[in-house]
Design brief:
- Two copies of one chain form a homodimer.
- The first copy, chain A, is mainly beta.
- Chain A has one domain (23-130, 140-151): YaeB-like (Elongation Factor Tu (Ef-tu), domain 3, Beta Barrel), CATH 2.40.30.70.
- Chain A is built from one helix and nine strands; from the N terminus they run βββββββββα.
- The first copy, chain A, starts with a strand and ends in a 5-residue tail after the last helix.
- At the A-B interface, β1, β4, β6, β7 and β9 of A face β1, β4, β6, β7 and β9 of B.
Amino acid sequence: MPIVLEPIAHVRGGRMDVADDAWGAVEARIELDAIRFGPEALAGLSDFSHLLVVYHFHLADPRRIETSARHPRNNPAWPKVGIFAQRGKNRPNGLGVSVCEILGVDGTTIHVRGLDAVDGTPVLDLKPHMKGFEPRGEVREPAWATELMGGYW
Amino acid sequence: MPIVLEPIAHVRGGRMDVADDAWGAVEARIELDAIRFGPEALAGLSDFSHLLVVYHFHLADPRRIETSARHPRNNPAWPKVGIFAQRGKNRPNGLGVSVCEILGVDGTTIHVRGLDAVDGTPVLDLKPHMKGFEPRGEVREPAWATELMGGYW
């Protein structure tokens, strides 16, 4: 059964065009839908240092959605891995999940740094980053994942 | 503009009923929609220790969705904070985001531990947990968030 979602906010400012790397210093705003939400919906958010953002890769081409396996970034030096074993944008449902730094909250606007989403991106959810939701136990990942992220921020 | 998503998998096994706490030892399966996806969609996933799961709080009552502020878990000992400054399930769009441990991958099934979603939960996306997507810089959170998570896992 399909699940129908309505954007609760949009990314404004920051980068205008999609890019693979160097997102760390990018500053942008997340503007809540001010028809449905008031400043109360963000009350207490500035007590957190980081924000988890769920957004929609609205510029991804539906014809390019991968449902099987491919080389991350089409780089043949990295193994062919399943779409659910990588984080590329050409994925079923086109959801991005990312953690960025909260610079400040001003009414229904959040100022952030290091959000890897371009101007105009629809935002589907915002959650505070809590230490308690970090992975339990030792984190292990393959070498390609560490290499890929080398220049990301 | 609404965004229409199709579940890519479902949670099977684990807990049958919603509970606030003690999710850490719960083991369950995530079963891909085998009509649309084959084992290739999970190729390489077992090289990661942890999985990020985006799911839908399908049992949440739409009439109870909070769009403003409330006490987390309705506990008056904790401050009234905005719905986007907490992680409760009665939220616009009803999305859950959680990181769990990968026990093994078997065809189109992933065996996991510590996923805080009940049997039957629709899954909208799966991503490998990469160290590179962890928060950059020091993480800060209010005392109530640390307290609330005390018995969660």
